[in-house]
Design a protein that fits this description.
This protein has 223 residues and is an alpha/beta fold. The protein contains 5 helices and 10 strands.
Length: 223
């Protein structure tokens, strides 16, 4: 009986294990198929299903990049294409044909310097200028005036006792050029040629500003 019982258990054991194994595999397969079918249905039928990276949908920042098109941003970033307006600078006034004294005053009013070049002809009119009339110039620019005739006679002003700056301005107004011998501060203690002397336009007048020379001698001749 012992052998018979043992044989019965041996025959039943393998069959039962095989049935259990097959059943387990069937359950696993059904579960996998069901999950796959549910994922497919969810992706096709449910519009609210969230997209996944594998679907290759554009990132959320893509629309922003599309809105920032070069055509729209170019007007703000592109440089100005219109030509800049030309600055309203000074120009040489129409001095040709004027008396050189009037032309000089006109240049002075425009804060321009002047230089007189006298010729060998006759008259006192300006024949040409450099820079030419109408040319743009900066304040303080020296404009050369070419006068038709020679330098006319002029009387040297007496500037002794005047402040050095005031004396220089007066000499320039009368057509002379100051030549500083002892600096440019203080009062004029001496001048050469002396005041009320005869001279011509463009002549230089030497002035001594401040203390008089220690030797007390007469000033050296103007070169």
């Amino acid at each position: 009986m012992t052998d018979g019982d043992t044989g019965a258990r041996d025959d039943a054991g393998p069959d039962r294990s095989a049935l259990l194994l097959r059943g387990g595999l069937a359950v696993v397969l059904l579960a996998a198929v069901g999950a796959t079918g549910g994922w497919l249905l969810a992706g096709e039928d449910d519009p609210s299903a969230p997209p996944t990276a594998a679907e290759g949908l554009p990132a959320t920042s893509a629309p922003a990049a599309t809105r920032s098109t070069p055509g729209r941003s170019a007007p703000a970033a592109a440089p100005r294409t219109t030509a800049p307006s030309r600055s309203a600078g000074l120009t040489v006034p129409p001095v040709v044909g004027e008396d050189f004294t009037d032309a000089r005053e006109e240049l002075r009013d425009k804060r321009l310097g002047w230089r007189l070049v006298f010729g060998r002809g006759t008259g006192t009119t300006v024949e040409r200028s450099s820079p030419e009339v109408g040319a743009e110039v900066q304040p303080g620019r020296t404009v050369t005036l070419y006068v038709s005739g020679p330098a006319p006679a002029a009387t040297v002003p007496d500037v002794v006792g005047d402040d050095c700056d005031d004396a220089a301005d007066e000499l320039v107004d009368e057509g002379f050029y100051p030549q500083y011998r002892t600096g440019r501060t203080g009062k004029v203690s001496r001048q050469d040629p002396p005041g009320d002397g005869a001279g011509r336009w463009n002549d230089q007048v030497s002035i001594w500003c401040g203390d008089a020379p220690e030797d007390g001698g007469s000033p050296s001749p103007t070169p």
